[in-house]
Amino acid sequence: MKPISRAALLVAAALLSACGGGDGTGSAAPGPGVLTVTLDNPNAGDRALVLTLSGPAAVTDVQPAVATNVVYTRTQGTTTRVAVFGTIADGALLQVSVPDAGRAGEYSATVQEAADAGNAARGSVSGYSATVKRGS
Questions:
Q1: Farthest CA pair distance, the chain
Q2: Rounded to whole angstroms, how far apart are CA atoms 84 and 48?
Q3: Phi-psi region of 123 (alpha: psi -120 to 50; beta: other; left: phi over 0)
Q4: Helix, strand or coil, per DSSP, at residue 20
Q5: Where do the structural domains in the chain lie, given as residue ranges?
Q6: Which pTM value belongs to this model?
Q7: Could you tell me whether strands 91-98 and 61-64 are parallel, antiparallel, or unpaired per DSSP bridges?
Q8: CATH of domain 25-119+130-134
């Protein structure tokens, strides 16, 4: 083998190993991990929110992404209802531990109810959007 070819082969091998795990489809390697639930909130001033998380397996832990918020959960099968209390704003809302973060794309979050600062329920949750993704 020519020296230049061997060097090109070594560089290519190094680049491929730096790409990390996965199956070539862009999905993460299997195993436990943390997913982030982000919120697009059309109303400023919400102080409570109820949403459902569904996926291929039950979540193992739910923590607020904002330290001053409080969460309560109830899991039944692979669906978890989460009540969030505090200042509800756009952006990261929850950190969710799952048994296989490589399946992040199979998880979904749906806003069920919202309440304003006066504890009055919003008449509709249209316009609210929650997404689940890997990482922070």
A1: 76
A2: 6
A3: alpha
A4: coil
A5: 25-119+130-134
A6: 0.78
A7: antiparallel
A8: 2.60.40.680
